[in-house]
Amino acid sequence: MWTQRTLSLCILLGFLTAKGLAQNCPVANGYFADSQQCDAYVECKDGVPEKQLCPDGLLFNDRLTGYPRYPCSYPQEVECGSRTRLQPAQSSGDCPHQYGLFRAGNPDQCGSYINCVAGTASISNCPEGLAFNDQTARCDWPDEVPSCNAASFVRFQCPGVRVEADLGHPRFSDPADCRKFYVCVEGTKPRALSCGVGSVFNPEIGVCDEPENVPQCASYYPADVLSAVRRLKSFDNSV
């Protein structure tokens, strides 16, 4: 049986506890980083703090503002600083974590990546000629991705010696495709590019050109396709 004195003490203790918890919230509503764990945070709602945990693979992003905006981001977007602790990884199939973007394949095949959502993996591909950068979770030039073997990936080895950028980057045609060509950044870093539909690469001048100006590529496009492309370009230019 509760006595009046016991009940009063419980009410007082509850009030002091709630007051103490409220004092842990700098503002009534907001998210705040855990002092040690990068994927943990404190959510303050109406002045009451509650510890929360990001899904496995995501980290608390203390740069995001605007409660109640979702506060967890990909690791590439977060600076943990001294908050080095993390929850144990929950791998599933091809997913090293439940959530995240991860490079797929080996260093010679770095144009695809795995998108993990709730432990389910789906494969996505970067635009042609680009490689997935697991340090930024974006598609970049392969020579800018440390984990990618750029020459093997684009299947072209730059033959030249390193040159200064202001002298221009050497360009080379693709022997198998008249539209495609390679740019050797600083003479040594290969990047694969492609001319727009209706044009081909002219190795004599190093730019995309009309097919009739490149003898070996004059018949690259069927006549009806080339005619349709030129009509469309003419229409666009007239608008």
From TrEMBL:
On whether Signal is a keyword of this UniProt record, the answer is: yes
Q: What is this protein called?
A: Chitin-binding type-2 domain-containing protein
Which segments constitute the Chitin-binding type-2 domain?
22-82, 92-150, 155-219
Source species, domain of life: Eukaryota
Give the CC-aspect GO terms. extracellular region
Family annotation (InterPro entries)? Chitin-bd_dom, Chitin_bind-dev_reg
Which keywords annotate this record?
Chitin-binding, Disulfide bond, Signal
Organism annotation: Allacma fusca
Q: Which GO terms describe its molecular function?
A: chitin binding
Q: Which residues are the signal sequence here?
A: 1-22
Q: Does the keyword Signal apply?
A: yes
